Amino acid sequence: MQLDICEIFYSLQGESTFTGLPCIFIRLSGCNLNCSWCDTPYARKESYAMTFDQIFKELKSYPCGLVEVTGGEPLLQDNTPTLISMLLKKEYQVLVETNGSKSIKNLPPECIKIMDIKCPSSHESDSFLSENIPLLTKHDEIKFVIGSRKDYIFAKSIIENDLSGISLKKIHLSPVFGCIAPDAIATWILDDHLPARLSLQQHKIIWDPDKRGV
Fold it and tell me: Has residue 212 been placed in a domain?
């Protein structure tokens, strides 16, 4: 079996409740969306095929037990759930970052889904599959990328009306880097007593925001 890979690299987790932890990233190629603020447009086209054996050989070169499968959109490839199952069997802790437009029903429940719900400024806010919400487990996470006050109001409505079963510790509001000041979102969260956390992209603070492989 094989997958179309954009890149595999070792860095610190920049987002989610795992922020700051060493992690191996498997970035798969291809995406079905075209978000206005996308920071990995190269993942749409850059691609080389790797067998599962080749992938696992590369993973062994890093002394790390945390792996994130990301993209692009990793669920576009039929073999992604199989890779995740194999990672789990090899006792990796697995995060899967998905844009929420593809069903997560075939993903093993043991992996941690980090699901993006697109806001209006992405121009892809109608892409989310609402039937994914009941499939989330108590350890899964939700992310809203916020670029404007309108985005915040959109996220707030979904949090208050549809995400009551998700821990506030695992609902993230992440500012579009360089587009909106984090303190604006912080003020809105506090003013509204919103059950969510402000999440910054740590890797873009530590390194050049355009640097790859971090």
Answer: no
